[in-house]
Design brief:
With 116 residues, this protein is α+β, with helices and mostly antiparallel strands. The chain has one domain (8-108): HIT family, subunit A (2-Layer Sandwich). It has helices spanning 8-13, 58-79; strands at 21-24, 28-32, 42-46, 83-87, 103-108. It binds guanosine-5'-monophosphate (5GP).
């Protein structure tokens, strides 16, 4: 399917919608999830216009996983949590609700269940 640049993450990337930014570099933007599944839930969004991981370039994927790892390390250090989910959904059938590729970093204590 063709990429739809009207999605909310595209608007955030263009500065047309607000976000609580936690990290930015030339290839990625990371910000707090509006409806977090746990305190400290961060989204990592590649700047490249791609709906899913399947359309993202290899360079974009490398940049996204590098930023995701950095965010995971920072969140674990800041919150002192025991574990983290790193999640990435592709397509509505898989539960993706925003059609711009993104990774979730979700802090978890032992025994918590991921709602996804
Ligand atoms: P998905 O289900 O597509 O993997 O995840 C989309 C995520 O984006 C959800 O966790 C949802 O809470 C978050 N989200 C949706 N709209 C906004 C928004 O306008 N701002 C922010 N910061 N997060 C959003």
């Amino acid at each position: 399917m063709a990429y739809d640049s009207n999605n909310i993450f595209a608007k955030i990337l263009r500065g047309e919608a607000p976000c609580i930014k936690v990290y930015e570099d030339g290839d990625t933007l990371a910000f707090m999830d509006l409806m977090p599944q746990a305190d400290g839930h961060v989204l990592i969004v590649p700047k490249e216009p791609a709906e899913t991981l399947l359309e993202l370039s290899e360079e974009g994927a490398m940049a996204a996983i590098r930023t995701t790892r950095r965010i995971a390390i920072a969140v674990k250090k800041a919150l002192g949590v025991e574990g983290l989910h790193v999640a990435q959904l592709n397509g509505a059938a898989a539960g993706q609700t925003v059609p711009h590729i993104h990774f979730h970093v979700i802090p978890h204590a032992t025994g918590t269940v991921l709602r996804m």
